[in-house]
Specification:
Helices cover about 35% and strands about 20% of the residues. By secondary structure, the protein is of the alpha/beta class.
């Protein structure tokens, strides 16, 4: 199989609101940064793929406006997924595996501040039985958290410890929105308190992929993608065991995550209770450094947070802080869809 690596990663400083910026204005500095790290120009990129959601923007085909920031003339080979940017990265990875391109630019962005993201995300639900009830994302996560507590898998102090560890780690991340000691706060939906939930975030991220010797020429220590896979749970929440994630486990197995231990895991767990589920499904012991960036509890730009997990894992490999890392992205309620990538650096 053709060798593909992440050779550059860039992201915004994530914020609660960015009213003064359009999506294009928010994205432009990130694109300049990631291209500047490699010395590439837009014309050097063989394939471009983006991830975003028209529901957040409130208008159809909003992603075409973001292409103004990329530069679509002369015509480029371009695609888009109505998903987190991690799935755009998957598409770009497959494109490079086919040999149709040697380099790819992947970017994602989300501005959740203009609307009520808890209500917007209800549109992901089963349209016949669940969506008409309008259960918001926090309420559904609280159901999952309560199921874990009832099963004896965790308790509220343990969830608070997850939040404290994540936001303490985020103190070293200049892009984090929340960092340092954050109080547990009041209940949003019991048993989840404010500290158990992600902030509303505006932000963007981008990575560059390259194949073989092209990657080695662009980056001193490329983060090689040794495997990547994504799986989905049943759409109906009522037929799922919310205390487990078979799809994350299967994606990890197919990506080769269980072949050798990893030293780092960047988990897209917007709620503290979801880290509990993922640690069990992905077989992560206490010796694994989980979310050294702070994770989605420190900044959660919808449609970019999963791509950021992969980018953060790759960046640690670039600077020699990790040798073998697992990166995870999710989409949908209660970890409905899960993507796992295994990244390695050369000795």
């Amino acid at each position: 199989m053709r060798e593909i690596a992440i050779v550059a990663f860039a992201q915004t400083a994530h914020r609660r609101r960015s009213d003064e910026l359009s999506e294009v204005e928010m994205l432009m500095p990130v694109l300049h940064d990631v291209l500047g790290q490699t010395g590439l120009k837009t014309s050097d990129i063989g394939f471009t793929c983006s991830g975003s959601s028209d529901y957040l923007a409130g208008r159809a085909f909003s992603f075409t406006m973001a292409l103004d920031g990329v530069g679509a003339w002369p015509p480029i080979s371009e695609s888009h997924v109505e998903m987190d940017g991690a799935w755009a990265l998957y598409e770009a990875w497959v494109k490079l595996l086919t040999g149709e391109a040697d380099t790819a630019l992947v970017y994602a962005y989300g501005k959740t501040s203009p609307g009520e993201v808890r209500d917007v995300l209800t549109r992901q639900l089963d349209p016949y039985y669940v969506a008409p009830l309008w259960p918001d994302s926090v309420s559904l996560a609280a159901l999952q958290a309560q199921a874990l507590i009832d099963a004896g898998d965790t308790d509220e102090p343990a969830l608070a410890a997850v939040a404290a560890r994540s936001r303490t780690a985020a103190s070293a991340n200049p892009h984090a929105q929340l960092s340092g000691p954050v109080p547990a706060g009041d209940y949003l939906v019991q048993p989840l308190r404010t500290g158990d939930c992600p902030p509303v975030s505006d932000g963007a991220a981008a990575v560059i992929l390259a194949a073989g010797d092209t990657a080695r020429g662009l980056c001193e220590r490329p983060a090689w993608i040794r495997g990547m896979d994504h799986r989905i749970e049943a759409h109906s929440l009522g037929v799922r065991d919310l205390t487990d994630s078979p799809s994350a486990r299967q994606a990890a197995e197919r990506a080769g995550a269980f072949e050798r231990p990893v030293d780092t895991a960047e988990l897209h767990a917007p709620f503290t209770s979801q880290e509990v589920v993922l640690r069990k499904a992905l077989r992560l012991g206490d010796d694994v450094n989980v979310n050294p960036s702070g994770g989605a509890l420190a900044a959660n730009p919808v449609m970019a947070a999963g791509l950021i997990r992969i980018g953060e894992a790759a960046a640690r490999i670039h600077r020699g802080a990790s040798d073998r890392a697992l990166a995870h992205a999710t989409s949908g309620p209660c970890l409905q869809q899960n993507l796992v990538a295994v990244l390695e650096g050369e000795s």
